[in-house]
Amino acid sequence: MFKEKINNGQMFAWIMMFELGNAIIVNLGEEAKQAAWIAILIAMVAGLGTFGLIYFPLFRLYPKHTFTTYTQIIVGKYIGWPLSFLYLIYFTYISGRDLLDFGTLTSTISFDQTPVFVINGIMIIALVYGLRKGVEVYVRSAEIFFGLFMFVFIVGFLLLVISGQMERDNLRPVIDDGMKPIMQAVPFVYTFPFAEMIAFTMFLPFLQNDKSVVKVGLVSIICTGILLSIIAVLNVATLGVFQTQTAVFPLIETIGEINIGEFMQRLDSLVVLLLVVTSFFKIGTFFLAAVIAASDLFHVRNYGKLALPMGIIILLCSVMMATNYIEHIQEGMQVLTKYVQFPLQTGIPLLILFIALIRKHFDRNSKQEQEQSE
């Protein structure tokens, strides 16, 4: 179905950049306090289960089709088309939310005199250009930027250790209030970012070796979980629990604490650099998922033609969905997780898989009956 193909290394880098995305700057698992890293690892395990037990089995049943395509095959056109259209709206909406995250942070930290709309517009222009070039070109850039990300991350980590700003006592006691706060933090961390792998059900047919899908997906999720848990530990060890919880962007304040000989300090720009790089792939992945979904639903052969109109829609969504950033965050944590993310990321795909397995069972039985009658 898809002439463009990507290899395992490119898919791994792409998933990593996508999963890290804007998750590196928010306070993941804040309800768990100093045990946030445990909540992240538990959510990671849940994400592994979702990918390995839902997304991959669906792909294995329909290896040549995207999620919106095989949904129509499994449940029929009259139910499948509206359901697939719902995912088109979802991909578009989440891309807009991530674009708002990017624009707000960049405006707050580096370009406080520049309107968020202008910053978001520049990102959309870059993405439209990249996506019109095709999936292969877009994903090749993920390999390059992943190397840049890891280099900056390792340098920042080493500088933070050398500066002596981290306090191990900030991480103790690890489980102060029992497991309840940890488990309360898990659902949000699960839906953001681990279960957002639902977007990759639109891209798995692009992989050259479809037998490697489960391996690449699971390894990428594990590596993401480890990196995010390390960031959570760094934030709490450097800032303490209270400052980490009250900070809008904890990682920026953490890196801002680096001070080596009154010479090397104010390295906040490192975080902004990481955010620009990861956001390009986080926003772009949902953007591309929406474009491919639209091309599938409306029978547009060249999905690149839809990049510009879809980009304009996402840009407008990013500036219209919330009056301020606090409202945006509260909406994401209190409404989006429970009523949007969990049903669309887990509930509906699980139901579709269940129906697909039942259909496969009955199809196999009817085929055996026909063979016996002959």
From TrEMBL:
Transmembrane segments: 35-58, 78-96, 116-132, 144-162, 182-204, 216-242, 270-294, 306-326, 338-358
Membrane topology summary: Multi-pass membrane protein
Keyword presence, Transmembrane helix: yes
Family matches, as InterPro entries: Spore_GerAB
A biological process term (GO) from this entry: spore germination
Compartment annotation: Membrane
Pfam families reported for this sequence: Spore_permease
PANTHER family: SPORE GERMINATION PROTEIN A2
NCBIfam families registered for this protein in UniProt: 2A0309
Protein name in UniProt: Uncharacterized protein
Lineage, broadest ranks: Bacteria, Bacillati, Bacillota, Bacilli, Bacillales
